[in-house]
From TrEMBL:
Residues 171-319 form the Glycosyl transferase family domain. Pfam families: Glycos_transf_1. This is Glycosyl transferase family 1 domain-containing protein. PANTHER family: GLYCOSYLTRANSFERASE (PTHR12526).
Length: 437
């Protein structure tokens, strides 16, 4: 039997695109499943080119093509829904008029913090909920379901352990330190510059990634430390950069949304030793890799980074662990085999209507979708007050997660991009006014 799988997502950019492409390619190699891509937004040229080369069917702009969306949902054996908080996906999941289908939902965010929290009812939307990290089992909205023993699976969001060129040995030269990944305080630790300077790392620290690399450059300049950093912005050749590094300094915002952290796999595969400050998700990743050091506090991260750049004994120990990397559940063949088992399981279920709970009437206003997405958090009440022309006070502002200041990622500005809604404009205007101070 050949099961037809429709991958449905807002788009296939960034890390999710990398993971989905790897999964489809490996699944096609193993056989037994046919895959198609569907995007609610316009597909990127890179996605189109990849799908064309492999002969993978692609439909896009489905948010604006109702008949094509319904046809795609009907003409498949099951829908593999790739979930993160996105206005168009939120709108689709609240619809009452879509045809029945089988659905497995894979979360590509950890679900702990707004705006990428798991909304109420998410677990009941699909036939099977699959998390990308076991840390998500501790997300507030899943607590009761986990206690009741609800069937929730975990498959790591990963493109597998890549083949990387070996790190270039330099004998007794200074330890080379770098950061590779998202350069944005939503993901990168907001005090990245300070933490690195306190560690007193020898040589210049290389920073690769965007989109806020110019802001980071300005922050380094503001403290007179621009010569301590080599800020590259986005790069195309991560393997070549990894071969230049000895240590990956990877402090993250404690409220970040991520799961896969593919860069940790790339670093270890290249023989580069990670020093990490983040969440339980990153600790789990390092445990699976069997390499790298995890800090519990900012002070410990600084101390570890200082120690690792001066004590080559620790470095040599961790390099041996990196070299021993093998037979991990992060291997792509194991991830793909897990998905094949899930597809077989969901295929046994009958097709049925799917709609997320939270709004008890069809055709909700865009601002209702936004409020439903953060129901159960402080921000739902806060947004409601802003719609009534309330103003920020300092306590409100301290409680705002950085994700709500982003242009995308499920923020009010993201909703405003797609929808002309007076209540959304009221909320966004209040944020813009406060940010302008």
């Amino acid at each position: 039997m050949n099961i037809r799988v429709l991958h449905l997502a807002p788009h296939y950019g960034g890390g999710v695109g990398t993971v989905v492409r790897a999964l489809i390619a490996e699944s096609r190699r193993l056989g037994g499943y046919t895959h198609r891509l569907a995007c609610l937004e316009a597909a990127s040229e890179a996605t189109r080119a990849w799908a064309g080369r492999l002969g993978v069917g692609l439909a896009d702009r489905l948010h604006w093509d109702d008949e094509a969306l319904k046809q795609a949902l009907s003409d498949t054996d099951l829908v593999h829904l790739h979930w993160w908080h996105h206005p168009l996906l939120n709108a689709m999941m609240h619809r009452w008029d879509l045809p029945p289908f089988r659905c497995v939902l894979w979360t590509h965010v950890n679900g702990h913090h707004p705006p990428q929290n798991f909304p109420p009812g998410l677990i009941d939307y699909p036939d099977l909920l699959v998390l990308a990290t076991s840390w998500s089992l501790k997300a507030p909205v899943l607590a009761e379901a986990v206690t009741r023993g609800r069937d929730i699976l975990v498959v790591r969001s990963s493109a597998g352990i890549p083949k990387m060129p070996p790190r270039v040995e330099r004998g007794d030269g200074p330890v080379r330190v770098g950061y590779v990944g998202t350069v944005d305080p939503i993901k990168m630790h907001p005090d990245f510059i300070r933490l690195c300077l306190e560690a007193d790392v020898p040589g210049r620290i290389v920073v690769a990634g965007g989109p806020c690399h110019e802001d980071l450059r300005a922050a380094a300049k503001a403290v007179g430390a621009e010569d301590r950093f080599e800020i590259l912005g986005p790069i195309d050749d991560v393997p070549a950069l990894m071969s230049r590094l000895d240590v990956l300094a990877y402090p993250l915002n404690s409220q970040h949304y991520g799961t896969g952290e593919q860069v940790l796999l790339e670093a270890v595969a290249a023989g580069v030793m990670p020093v990490v400050f983040g969440t339980e998700n990153e600790r789990e990743t390092l445990d699976l890799l069997g390499c790298g050091l995890m800090a519990d506090t900012e002070e410990q991260f600084v101390a570890l980074l200082r120690q690792i750049t001066t004590d080559t004994t620790i470095l040599r120990r961790e390099y041996r662990r990196c070299a021993a990397l093998s037979d991990s559940e992060l291997d792509l063949d194991k991830i793909t085999t897990a998905w094949h088992r899930i597809y077989d399981q969901v295929f046994e279920s009958p097709s049925k209507p799917h709609r997320i709970c939270g709004i008890d009437h069809p055709n909700p206003h865009p601002h209702e979708l936004l409020l439903a997405s953060c129901q159960g958090t402080k921000l739902a009440d806060f947004y409601s007050r802003l719609m009534k022309h309330a103003t920020f006070d300092e306590e409100d502002w301290r409680d705002i997660p950085m994700g709500y200041l982003a242009k995308t990622r499920g923020s009010c500005f993201h909703y405003e991009k797609f929808y002309d809604d007076p209540a959304l404009k009221q909320i966004a205007a209040a944020f813009k006014s406060r940010l302008a101070r």
